[in-house]
């Protein structure tokens, strides 16, 4: 199975996949070619692995069966979480415009929403308009954005893309197509990728033939949907899945990368946290190829943050892929032992989860985050310093990035009431997440073990 890899995890994933005879990495980037003592084919890829915008994981796009196989292979640790995208790349939907914004429109796709930039359509778009749209840029479930849409229909590929001529767009490469032994279906044209000039004609023909089959399937789907009046999928598009790497998984990927080239402790953990830090990691590894030791948390946070006085967000991941912000707080303390203490002033109204205590004006939440731990405590205090209760959240290993703390909540938690009573809550929600396929039994068992240890300690 041919796979194309890009992004900050490319070296580790190339090593992981090349070590399995079921996979063949193709179209390698120049840095990957330098690091591996092997040749790489330029043939078309059945699957592409691409980084998400936040560098926290990867997207897997391509043939649906192949995507599923690669997704299973990328399960590198207990805190690797995976989801299938409900708005995959290339999927075509009949949608309804629900809102118009300054730069585009929000479109209801049935089971999800997308964003249609005004520049991606020739139509004048208004609320309640029915549109046939295609997903051009899928987004990870942990991000804040919606999938980007367009009204130009195409079958996308890295080397060649087929574009429906009835849609807008500029023609590309007709002279090159004339010398190839392929017949593009009527109503379609070829738009060449930027790497097309660097590969042979046989590779380009294979790439186009791969797209022709899908273009014909799209034509059939569109013909069958001409009389549709409901909202939803017209054409399934590419298989698209997302893989979120937690802290343990990033360090596991470090080990794969270290077998190929100099890799400092916490390589992927640091690169995921900050773009400036990513460049610094490359610089250090080029200067000092013999790297060993522990993850340099103190050095990284002193250089890139967070430091005392910074305000950072708490990115509370959910097992279904969503990320919820718990607000921002001020770093009031940072220890060299990989711990930061964050304080937030709480707004009045409502109650604290599981504690059953009203939120009052002047309340302060003091939270201690320790890099790599599977839990963190938050102590709620009143304006005069009285403890109102403690909430211990059980989660995947914590990562203290420069601008936010990240983890994925494992539902089960432990609370300590002001009167000293200890209570364990939400085991049923963890069980439901396992049943839904959002959490593996291995990860769930770890969460239960952590909750039991915290309960006994309190």
Descriptive key words:
alpha+beta, FomD barrel-like fold, globular, six-stranded mixed beta sheet, 24 strands, OB fold (Dihydrolipoamide Acetyltransferase, E2P), 458 residues, 3 domains, single chain, seven-stranded mixed β-barrel, 32% strand
- Please tally the β strands and state the result: 24
What do we call the CATH homologous superfamily of the largest domain? FomD-like
Report strand %.
25-35%
- Approximate shape: globular
How much helix, percentage-wise, in residues? 25-40%
From the 3D structure, determine the CATH topology of the largest domain: FomD barrel-like fold
State the name of the first-level CATH class of the largest domain. Answer: Mainly Beta
Please, could you describe this protein's structure?
The protein is an alpha+beta fold and 458 residues long. It folds into three domains: 2-85 and 241-258, no CATH class; 92-237, OB fold (Dihydrolipoamide Acetyltransferase, E2P); 311-457, FomD-like (FomD barrel-like fold, Beta Barrel), CATH 2.40.380.10. Helix content is 26%, strand content 32%. The chain contains eleven helices and 24 strands. It has helices at residues 10-18, 30-35, 64-73, 174-178, 201-224, 247-258, 267-273, 275-287, 297-304, 427-435, 441-457, and strands spanning 2-5, 24-25, 47-51, 57-62, 80-84, 92-100, 104-108, 113-117, 130-137, 147-150, 154-155, 160-164, 188-192, 232-235, 239-245, 311-317, 323-335, 339-345, 364-370, 375-381, 387-395, 399-400, 404-417, 422-425. It has a seven-stranded mixed barrel. It has a six-stranded mixed β-sheet with strand order 2-1-3-4-15-5. Strands 6-7-8-10-9 form a five-stranded mixed beta barrel. A hairpin with a 4-residue loop joins strand 7 (104-108) and strand 8. Residues 167-174 have low confidence and may be disordered.
């Amino acid at each position: 199975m041919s796979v194309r890899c890009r992004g900050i995890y490319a070296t580790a994933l190339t090593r992981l996949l090349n070590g399995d005879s079921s996979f063949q990495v193709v179209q390698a980037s120049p840095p990957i070619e330098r690091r591996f003592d092997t040749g790489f084919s330029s043939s078309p890829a059945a699957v592409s692995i691409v980084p998400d915008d936040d560098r926290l994981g990867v997207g897997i796009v391509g043939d649906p069966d192949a995507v599923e196989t690669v997704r299973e292979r990328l399960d590198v640790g207990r805190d690797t979480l995976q989801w299938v995208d409900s708005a995959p790349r290339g999927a075509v939907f009949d949608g309804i415009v629900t809102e118009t914004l300054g730069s585009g429109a929000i479109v209801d796709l049935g089971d999800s929403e997308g964003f249609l930039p005004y520049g991606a359509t020739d139509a004048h778009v208004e609320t309640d308009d029915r549109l046939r749209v295609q997903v051009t840029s899928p987004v990870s479930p942990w991000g804040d954005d919606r999938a980007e849409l367009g009204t130009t229909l195409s079958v996308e590929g890295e080397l060649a893309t087929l574009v429906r001529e009835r849609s807008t767009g500029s023609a590309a490469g007709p002279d090159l197509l004339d010398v190839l032994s392929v017949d593009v279906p009527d109503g379609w044209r070829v738009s060449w990728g930027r790497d097309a000039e660097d590969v042979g004609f046989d590779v380009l023909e294979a790439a186009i033939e791969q797209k022709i089959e899908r273009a014909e399937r799209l034509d059939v789907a569109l013909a069958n949907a001409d009389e549709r009046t409901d909202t939803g999928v017209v054409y399934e598009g590419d298989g698209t899945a997302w893989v979120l790497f937690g802290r343990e998984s990033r360090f596991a990927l470090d080990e794969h990368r270290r077998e190929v080239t100099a890799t400092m402790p916490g390589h992927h953990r640091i690169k995921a946290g900050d773009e400036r830090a990513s460049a610094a990691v490359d610089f250090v590894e080029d200067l000092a190829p013999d790297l060993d030791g522990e993850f340099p948390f103190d050095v990284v946070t002193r250089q890139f943050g967070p430091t005392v006085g910074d305000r950072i967000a708490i990115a509370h991941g959910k097992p279904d892929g969503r990320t919820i912000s718990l607000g921002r707080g001020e770093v009031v303390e940072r220890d060299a032992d990989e711990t930061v203490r964050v304080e937030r002033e709480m707004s009045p109204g409502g109650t604290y989860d599981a504690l059953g205590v009203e939120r009052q004006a002047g309340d302060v939440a003091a939270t201690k985050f320790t890099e790599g731990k599977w839990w963190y405590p938050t102590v709620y205090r009143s304006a005069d310093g009285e403890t109102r209760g403690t909430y211990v959240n059980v989660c995947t290993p914590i990562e203290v990035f420069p601008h936010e703390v990240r983890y994925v909540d494992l539902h089960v938690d432990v609370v300590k009431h002001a009167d000293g009573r200890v209570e364990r809550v939400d085991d049923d929600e963890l069980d439901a997440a396992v049943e839904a396929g959002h959490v593996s039994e291995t990860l769930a068992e770890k969460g239960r073990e952590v909750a039991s240890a915290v309960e006994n300690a309190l």
